[in-house]
């Protein structure tokens, strides 16, 4: 978006005035179709810093993330913010059903309210351990037919012995981990040989509309911008990270989920209600009112739909990796092939005798 267009959008906003702080109506299209009305305001969680990171990679304030998730779990209407986790949890469960076996013992890392287990049956997973950094979130876990046990634990420090679980799951929690390679190595360690890890995490293109709008507005109004959307892992890095952690037979695929909102305020409100507010150490704790209004206008101008709603894109990365075992299929040795790719072009050609 050029500076001339950006300036025209901001000028239009100034002449139109600010929108009233009235009730907002949520509109979601397609499979996300539902409607809710939110009235009034809600206080934001505290954004102070506490402690220092224990990992070499120290991008996120893990204590802040724990407080955010505890705060979101105590909301009386907190279930209305679970739509994304419910959807992704169901898609992770579908990948479990694709494996034709029963898992005697499974682990859900960063389980939250157990958004995966409610889609599974005890015929597939016989026992399940749930871990999360937030005790309040675990208290509000969903009911399922699988016998479960909750353990409050940081995803970066799993308190389990080596070769314990037949299956490890994770949905929408790994993107807040400072040392992702170390966390994947721990998951590999607690898996039994021939065990499988199935996870989903947020990718690098998530909320690009919000990120771009805030950066343009802040540059225009304040002469520079700060990171308001957390950094995410690129899909091109995941295969390498899984391989370095010791997994084989890797599968990585991408799924874009787009949700439609009335405005930028609803996008940020729902992220807060999900416990997905930014917790990076270099974040800017406050946004000026003028910057938010400018970002709202830019968002509508660049990405707005004809019906007045705006889209928010969540790039979901699904990853599957197996812990090596001698019974697994292995690739043939280099040079052991008995046919050449060069012969493929001769398959449909008639032989000399036929001519």
Automatic annotation (TrEMBL):
**One GO biological process term:** methylation
Q: Which InterPro entries match?
A: Malonyl-ACP_OMT, Methyltransf_11, SAM-dependent_MTases_sf
> What is an example of a GO molecular function annotated in this UniProt entry?
S-adenosylmethionine-dependent methyltransferase activity
Short name of one Pfam family:
Methyltransf_11
Top-rank taxon of the source lineage equals: Eukaryota
Keyword Mitochondrion listed: yes
Q: Where is this region: Disordered?
A: 327-355
Q: Which family does it belong to?
A: Belongs to the methyltransferase superfamily.
The cross-references to PANTHER family, in alphabetical order and at most eight, read: ARGININE-HYDROXYLASE NDUFAF5, MITOCHONDRIAL
Name of the molecule in the record? Arginine-hydroxylase NDUFAF5, mitochondrial
Please tell me the species this chain comes from.
Answer: Anabas testudineus (Climbing perch)
Taxonomic lineage of this organism? Eukaryota, Metazoa, Chordata, Craniata, Vertebrata
